[in-house]
Each structure stands twice: as structure tokens, then as C-alpha cells.
Design goal:
With 190 residues, this protein is an alpha+beta fold. The chain folds into two domains: 2-58, no CATH class; 79-186, no CATH class. Helix content is 43%, strand content 28%. It has a three-stranded antiparallel β-sheet with strand order 2-1-3, covered by helices on one side. Helix 2 (79-98) runs antiparallel to helix 4 and helix 3 (113-128) packs across helix 4. The model has no long low-confidence stretch (mean pLDDT 93).
Length: 190
């Protein structure tokens, strides 16, 4: 016959579970220090703690940034962790926007890393010879012809697009750092 021993600390946190033949579990208990409870069947211990030798279910976790405080038996917000998570989210949005696309005169250009490099190369060629003509494939796969002077303007539009992404992220980072509640953090969006 199998038996389960659930070990817990003085705050009620489950520290170890031992299930197996009764003799083996009882031998483990004899060798161990600390409190334990016996069960004939292995109970569900997920999101539970021990009070007065009984398993008690934790209340629902309000967010992934809440950690259970075994002293108070309540979920406590880790505000710094929530801020880090929000900043990671904002950086992801910034990169997605920066390396997605941008528009210039109702034309949409790709702005992934390769495209940015190609645009800068075309701008350099245009600066050396503003009279050149450049055929460019846009984000919708149509082709547009630009003069060197026009392409310098495309390069400026790309530069403005990248700068705007970083300015927006910096502004949002300031809001994140100033937030004092989870509600304020959750209200910050790209």
C-alpha cells in the first residue's frame, strides 16, 4: 500500500513530497526533521499551503508579478518585476515598429535590418551623385523610381522613423519608472 508524506515549513510552505510504499515513506519521515502530514492517496498540492495540518488552497494569483507571502497568506505585488516585464514588452514593441516599415509620401518602405542597410547604401550613392536614378522595391512589392535627391529624403524619413521609435520608448520608460501601482503599469501601452 502506498502512502504520501507532505513536508512543510513553519510558515506552511510545502517543501517536499514523498510518495511510495508505506514502509519507505515512514522511514523517510523518521529520518527527516520538520512537520509533515500523511495521506493515503497523493493529494493535489498545486497552489496550496498547510495550516493546522490541513492543505489550504491559495487564493487566485492576481498577476504573474504577484508572489505568495506565506507569513500573511496573501499575494504580494513585486512592483519592480512588473516594471521590468513592462519594459521588456515596450522594447519588443519598439523593435517590431522600428524594424517593420515606415512611410514617406504615402509609400511604405520596409525597415528591417537589411532594408535599413540598403537604404543607407542608396543614400550614400545619392549623396555622391544626386542625379542618379534608383529603382526601389517597396513593402507592397511595387517598384518606384527615385532620383538621388528624393532618395536622400527617404533616408531622412528612415532616420526620423527610427528616432521616433526610440523617443517614444524613452518616454514610456519614464512612465514605467514613475509608476507606483500595477494599474499604472498596465495602462502603459505602445
Amino acid at each position: 500500500m502506498n502512502k504520501t508524506a507532505i513536508f512543510y515549513d513553519d510558515k506552511g510552505m510545502i517543501t517536499r513530497i514523498r510518495t511510495g510504499p508505506t514502509a519507505n515513506v515512514e522511514a523517510t519521515v523518521e529520518e527527516s526533521e520538520g512537520a509533515y502530514i500523511y495521506f493515503d492517496d497523493r493529494p493535489d498540492t498545486d497552489n496550496k499551503y498547510v495550516v493546522d495540518e490541513e492543505l489550504v488552497a491559495m487564493p487566485s494569483q492576481p498577476s504573474s508579478n504577484h508572489h505568495f507571502d506565506y507569513d500573511t497568506k496573501e499575494w504580494v505585488l513585486d512592483l519592480e518585476e512588473a516594471k521590468l516585464d513592462k519594459w521588456t514588452e515596450i522594447k519588443g514593441n519598439r523593435e517590431e515598429t522600428e524594424f517593420g516599415s515606415f512611410t514617406k509620401d504615402d509609400l511604405t518602405f520596409q525597415s528591417d535590418s537589411k532594408s535599413q542597410s540598403r537604404i543607407q547604401g542608396a543614400v550614400q550613392r545619392s549623396q555622391a551623385d544626386p542625379s542618379i536614378s534608383i529603382d526601389w522595391t517597396l513593402a507592397d512589392n511595387t517598384t518606384q523610381t527615385f532620383t538621388g535627391t528624393e532618395y536622400i529624403e527617404v533616408g531622412n524619413a528612415l532616420s526620423s522613423h527610427v528616432a521616433a521609435c526610440h523617443v517614444k520608448a524613452t518616454t514610456l520608460r519614464g512612465q514605467i519608472n514613475s509608476a507606483t501601482t500595477l494599474e499604472e503599469i498596465n495602462a502603459i501601452t505602445w
